[in-house]
Every structure is written in structure tokens, then in C-alpha cells.
Amino acid sequence: MRCPHCGSDDDKVIDSRTLANGESIRRRRECLSCGFRFTSYERIEEKPLMVIKRGGRREPFERQKLERGIIRALEKRPISQLSIENLVNEIEDQAAMKGKTANEIPSSELGEMVLDNLYSLDKVAYVRFASVYRKFETVVEFLEVIERLDHGPEHPAASPEPAAADPTANGCGSD
Q1: What is the pTM of this model?
Q2: Helices within the chain (DSSP H only)
Q3: Buried residues in 12-31 as b, exposed as e (16+ CB within 10 A)
């Protein structure tokens, strides 16, 4: 590592610590030429996960967009911030695993992941997200989903639905 003080490439590591749950390393270094101490950080460089939008356009996965859509669906619901954070982490991990080989995931799969997870967490948030994601236009569409919720544990998204919309429509979802 090049010394920021004298430019020498000779240094030694004095201390190493893992940060961010092992995702990065902080190293305290000392230049062997001038004695200056400095800190360096190391982290794994990953190819970004790309989201394939409905029109075929690709954009980088943005955790903030995912979180915004979920927070909007869970607005005024008795769900803790920690539960929301865990939900976002779970969906982000699922998306990374699904898109592992090509570093890509269709926005439709991402939207279904959100629906699956919201269904388990909060039925009202599930209906809210589904209404935006699936672009409900009539009260009947709401009633059909609610009726399926009342008739058993089967996930309503498992039944045939109209073609899924982009989960980022109207600001919900991630991609």
C-alpha cells in the first residue's frame, strides 16, 4: 500500500479488524520509510445485480427502492423497523441468490418475492403492495384478493393473475 505521506510502497500492518459483519477489513498500517501511520479498508468488489425491467431495459438493483416500496405498503401497520429491515435483507438475499449466475433478475420475480414475504408478514401490506404491483383498477380486484385471503392459507399470488406489472410502478418495489 502506498504511503499517503511520503509515497513509499514499504509498510507493515499493525492491526486488522473486520467491519460490517465481515464484509470489509480495516487495516492500520505503518510506513517503514517515514513511520507515518494510516488506515486502509478492504472489501469484496462484486458485480452489481441488475434488474431486467418489463421493457427489457436493465438497471442496477437499488436496495433503497425496494425498502421504499415495502415501507409504503407497511405504512401505519404495527410492524417494527427491525422487522422491515429483516424483510428487506431477506428479499435482497433471495434476489442475489436467484440472480447469482447471470447477475440479473427480472423485475417480475423481484415483485413476487416482495409479495411472498409481505404475505407472511402482514396481509394488509400484502394487499396494498399487490394493488400497486398488479395495477388494480377496480374494487372487484381488491375484493378477489381479500376473499382469497379469507379462504385459506394458500398464497393468493399462486392463483392465476393478470400479467404482472413492474413493481416500481407508482414508486413501489425495487428495481
Answers
A1: 0.63
A2: 63-73, 81-98, 107-121, 123-133, 139-150
A3: eeeeeeeeeeeeebebebbb
Instruction: Tell how far CA 122 is from the center of its chain.
Output: 18
Measuring CA to CA, which residue among 9, 1, 51 is closest to residue 25? 1
pLDDT, tens digit (0-9, with 9 covering 90-100), for 139-153? 999 999 999 888 766
The residues that bridge with 60 in the sheet, in sequence order, are 50
For residue 175, CA distances in Å to 11, 59, 65, 124 come to: 43, 7, 7, 23
CA 138, chain centre distance (Å): 30
Residue for grid cell 416500481: 168
Tracing cell 427489457 back to the chain, one arrives at 56
Q: Which three cell numbers stand for residue 130?
A: 399487490
pLDDT in tens, 17-34: 998 778 889 999 999 999
